[in-house]
Amino acid sequence: MGKKPIKYTVVDAFTESPFKGNPAAVCLLEEEKDDEWLQSVATEFNISQTAYLIPIPNSDTTPRFHLRWFTPVAEVKLCGHGTLASAHFLFTTSLSHTDKIEFLTLSGILTAKKVYETDDNFSIEMDFPVVLLVENDHIGEVTVRKAMNVSSVIEIKKTAADDFLVVLPSGKNVSEFEPQFDEIQKCPGRGLLITGVAPTESGFDFISRFFCPKLGMNEDPVCGSAHCVLASYWSKKLGKCDFVAYQASSRGGILNLHFDEINQRVLLRGKAISVMEGSILV
Q1: For 50-59, 105-114, 232-241, 271-280, which range has the lowest pLDDT when averaged over its residues?
Q2: Is residue 275 part of a domain?
Q3: Between 20 and 30 A from 158 (CA), which of 67, 141, 214, 227?
Q4: Are residues 40 and 85 in the same domain?
């Protein structure tokens, strides 16, 4: 007898439009699979994230799932759009009978809940840990400045997620930046996150982009976990806790954020849409 097919759904996260935002393949497993298999499937999908869900038997009313995220080349410890895609998948199927879900992850327990706008229209709000800034790597900063190859950089910071945060004079500079991926590949750490204040008339507070060729993605279309450092950073700079952020990749994505300074948490809110379904046969 052949193996039972494993169903998957591809969900575009942080968007209401198909083929925008950031795609994630969501796979519902009945049991644990070995890491080699999980990575091989993610490599086969070859999109920014593949999320794997395994139900956890509950004694209470809140559904709980193990959740892991893989890029085409590696597992990651925190992924915003993969979590949003997973929650959307569960909320729009018969697998969740409540308006709240808990995920057990490498970053602890993460929650996702429905936030209704009308009776049949909702966003999903996720509760994530803040990603802190750490002591700067000055040798790395020199390499990052070379990789940026722009005339004006406001500041460069190192994050606890092993990324470099580069602040440019404006959101326009962020949108128009032309990355040199061979130079970004030479930078120490994981990835390069650039950001700047959005134009007043845009309706956004700040704009960002995230480049991570070492994770198998030259540019991550919309990175929720990157906003766990951006929300904290811009809260100090702009003197506020609530933001509407735009990630200016070619696909684009919108995130509503709340920075909880006391508890060091970030609430990320967004929409998602399912665009594809299928089965893994091996």
Answers
A1: 50-59
A2: yes
A3: 67
A4: yes
